[in-house]
User: Fold this.
Amino acid sequence: MIEKDPLTSIEARLSSLKPRDPRLDRDRLMFLAGRASVVYWSRYSRSSFRPVVLSALAAAAVTLFVVTATESGSRIVDRVASAVVPGATSADTAGSQPPAPAQNAAGCRLEIGNSLGWIVPLLVGQKPVEKDSTKSGQNLIQLREALLSEDARPLPSGPTEELGGDSVATDVPVAGRQPPKRTAHSK
Amino acid sequence: MNRIGQELLSKILDEHGPALALYARQWCDAPEDVVQEAFLSLLRQPREVDNLVGWLYRVVRNGAINAARKASRRSRHESSAAHRGEPWFECPNGQRMDAALLVEVMQSLPIEQRETMVARLWGGLSWEEIARLTDTSSSTAHRRFQTALSVLRERFPET
Assistant:
């Protein structure tokens, strides 16, 4: 109600007088206003975009790490050695055994090394595949004994081609004897 | 930082700068410094200010009261001499007498009535804004204004 009171004559007369313009440092205020605006956007962009960028980079790093570990665990094989052992049982040749070339023959295969493959089973909570040096050493000895005691025949070139991945032949030198025939496939 | 751009700042300076300086002048003898500092404070605000004009009047009021306290520690004579020396209004030829008389009458009024009159007549604030500014009720602010106006009516005869 009192807001809508019209100006009385004395009010109109007084309000017609204009207050003196203050001597403000207008240029400085304008400069500071412009600078404050820049600082505002700088702070805004820093405060809002930095966490997003960091989160994205962290997610990308984790993804790359998992992908790399998975790939290396499933594909990269440093060395593969294969041989046919006629008297060996199937228990000795478990795992990724290639198909036997003959009925009475069983192959021995070693996969040695695997740079990051041990991480994946740990991440998914599985028991890691046994790749310890003791077991590998036993298999290597067993393979060596079999090769030395039997008349090893070369494997046909077919089965190990299916394995894929990078492989390097394992050469087991035996002092004083002629090394048996072995096949190794490299990619 | 707030979003006060240069255009908005320029507009506020043009529209409210003189009235803010007149408002600050009711307490202190260096109103330009107080108003300048109020605008600087506005530019430093981290968030957007609600009721920008009311906020500016509040900051100017606090700054002017603080400046007056500092001035009172200095020589009282020196302060009051400076206080009287500055013209309050622009004085075109036809209004020179009115301006001089108005300043004289306003200086005789209590500070509560003076600040209410300046905020209302030249600041254009609403009664609610004046009440918030002066920590009173709207009716009290209105009553102070009417009291000051009655004094002015006696000194400013109708023409």
